[in-house]
Write a structure and sequence with these properties.
Strand content: 15-25%
Oligomer: single chain
Number of strands: 9
Number of helices: 6
Order of helices and strands: EHEHEHEHEHEEHEE
Number of domains: 1
Strand order of the largest sheet: 3-2-1-4-5-6-7
CATH topology: Rossmann fold
CATH class: Alpha Beta
Low-confidence stretches: none
Radius of gyration: 16 Å
CATH architecture: 3-Layer(aba) Sandwich
Structural class: alpha/beta
Mean pLDDT: 96
Largest sheet: 7 strands, mixed
Length: about 200
């Protein structure tokens, strides 16, 4: 089986990128063909370079016109041969330019059980709401923020002994397991989207 070729978008420390890189060593049938960072100082760049993955580092000025930025990103991903684009802590909203270039082939990871707690502060919002269970969601990105078809979810209980930091750490641990699992399903051709825009796992 040929490995699934993916490009990764990130903005920060790159821990989910590292989880994918580590999973490759464990036999995940995926090849990371390019990493693009929205920030030149993101630590995820160093993780990619250490793994020998080509990297493009953008900056704030690159995003003055978000559609121009997305056109550049889409072009680089296509030239690298990426079949899917994987957002791993990428803090920019994608425009239709990017989504149209990779229709139903852009994955996002969200630190809550969607449709609950959308947005950039999901862990804090779940904590403030006093929920007893939260979690992580992998979904296909679309033009509606955090509303794309859900591929997989993993529940994370909120323990009586938790504080916000310990809860966040366990949510990230769940992310690092779930994202490679979803990529394996994609690589094995087991993921499809129904006419009702729901994801079916074979």
């Amino acid at each position: 089986m040929n490995p699934l070729k993916i490009g990764v978008l990130l903005s920060g420390s790159g821990t989910n990128l590292q989880a994918i890189i580590d999973a490759l060593e464990g036999g995940l049938p995926v090849s990371i063909v390019r990493v693009i960072s929205s920030r030149p100082d993101a630590f995820g760049i160093q993780r990619a370079e250490a793994a020998g993955i080509p990297v493009t580092a953008l900056n704030r000025a690159s995003y003055e016109d978000p559609e121009v930025a997305d056109a550049l990103i889409a072009c680089q991903m296509q030239e690298a041969g990426a079949e899917y684009v994987v957002m791993a802590g990428y803090m920019r909203k994608l425009t239709p330019v990017m989504l149209d270039a990779f229709p139903d082939r852009v994955l996002n990871l969200h630190p809550a059980l969607l449709p609950s707690f959308k947005g950039a502060h999901a862990i804090q919002d779940a904590w403030d709401a006093g929920v007893k269970v939260t979690g992580v969601t992998v979904h296909f990105a679309n033009e509606d923020y955090d509303k794309g078809p859900i591929v997989a979810q993993r529940a994370v209980p909120v323990l009586e002994t938790d504080d916000i930091e310990s809860l966040e750490a366990r949510i990230h641990e769940a992310e690092h397991v779930l994202y490679p699992e979803v990529l394996r399903l994609l690589a094995e051709g087991r993921v499809s989207i129904t006419d009702e825009r729901k994801v079916r796992i074979a």
